[in-house]
Amino acid sequence: MSKVFKKTSGNGTIALYLGKRDFVDNVDSVEIVEGVVKVDPSGLNNRKVYVYLACAFRYGSDDLDVIGLTFRRDIWLHRIQVYPPTGGSEAKSPMMESLLKKVGEQGHAFSFQMPPNLPCSVSLQPGLNDSGKACGVDFEIKAYIANAPDNPDEVIQKKDTCRLMIRKIQFAPANNKAGAKADLSKQFMMSDKPVHLEASLEKEVYYHGDPITVKVQINNETNKTVKKIKISVNQLTSVVLYSSDTYVKEVCAQEFGETVNAISTFEKSFQVTPLLANNKEKRGLAVDGRLKDQDTNLASTTLSQGEKEMQGIIISYKVKVTLTVSSGGLLGGLTGRDVVVELPVTLMSPKPAGDKLD
Question: So what does this one do (predicted)?
Answer without folding.
Answer: May play a role in an as yet undefined retina-specific signal transduction. Could bind to photoactivated-phosphorylated red/green opsins.
